[in-house]
Amino acid sequence: PAPAPAPAPAPSVEGFWVGRSSLGADVALTVLENGETWGVYTSGGYIVGALAGSTSVTGRAMSGSGADFNLLNRTVSRGSFVGTFVPQQSISAQLSSGATFSGRYNSLYDQPASLSAAAGTYIGQGVTGWTSPQTIGVTVSSTGTITMPASLGCSASGTVLPRSSGKNVFNVSVRFQGTTCALGNGATAQGVAFYDAAQRTLLVLALNSAQTDGFIYYAAK
Description:
The protein is mostly beta strands. It has one helix and 16 strands. The strands form two sheets. An eight-stranded antiparallel barrel has the order 1-2-3-4-5-6-7-8. It has an eight-stranded antiparallel β-barrel with strand order 9-10-11-12-13-14-15-16. It starts with 14 loop residues before the first strand and ends with a strand.
């Protein structure tokens, strides 16, 4: 007898999702292959918030939770969400705050991350959950070293390396040095980075070890 056909893969919410929230902010959400979930909220071209958490799925239903960073009023809170999705097409979610989000799939996720493309020097805005944005220069080398020269007494260095998933996402680990560093002298932040080759922009989202604060960096080269 012929072998039984392989079962169809389970629906996955993995990918880049872009859309708007019911509060009027533009939302860019990333769900990784392991369920890690990262997102940013922008308004008027400025990052006004961020999300870091995890997502799980049952069929085409999803649920998750994480830390929500409101950069306008300097608060960090825990939140949850539920919703539905169509793989690589659309997503709809309701947050515990009452806000809703609808988005569409962005196929940029399916392009392999390239260090040679991302390498360069960037100038942009860095911010934590408790400090105002400041202009910061960052250099990414073709071998995956990231360095931030001292600014107001705080410097940083670390790595930015493509994830083994082969998708357009980098793993990031950055260690801060200096008594004026917002996350603390010697603190390490770990997370993800995304490079947009068309816009020549780099977005870094990383959390401290306690996951009580984080570092957001958005810049162009």
